[in-house]
User: Fold THO complex 3 from Mastacembelus armatus.
Amino acid sequence: MLYFCPASVRVRAASGAALKPIQSINAHPSNCICIKFDPTGKYFATGSADALVSLWDVEELVCVRCFSRLDWPVRTLSFSHDGKMLASASEDHFIDIAEVETGEKLWEVQCDSPTFTVAWHPKRPLLAYACDDKEGKYDNNREAGTVKLFGLPNDS
Assistant:
């Protein structure tokens, strides 16, 4: 089992019911904020305050690729159902969607405000995301956000 230790900016591998550490990996030079495993079990990704997303090989525990298209701390990550795409978001006003195997940018989903949650549909290439829309074109007197979708037939 892998778990995240934000105080030491490390990802640690542990085993057994007591979760005794068996390996520690220096993942980023600043605080890690989020971690996600791809559904195939081949990779996990970490997002950090340094605005980098790191892709790690689960078997070898080595970083195979970094994504550096965001300017603000990475707040959320999500792998697509087939593990081929990785969405990452932050206070930047866009969501970066990358191809996992090459690191190539597939889409940049424009947003009107920071995005703090992204999640792919479990069986389709459909991304749900929540933005901090309280000061935007929506009613700013309410204490609620908005959930949006990317990947519908008329999205590009």
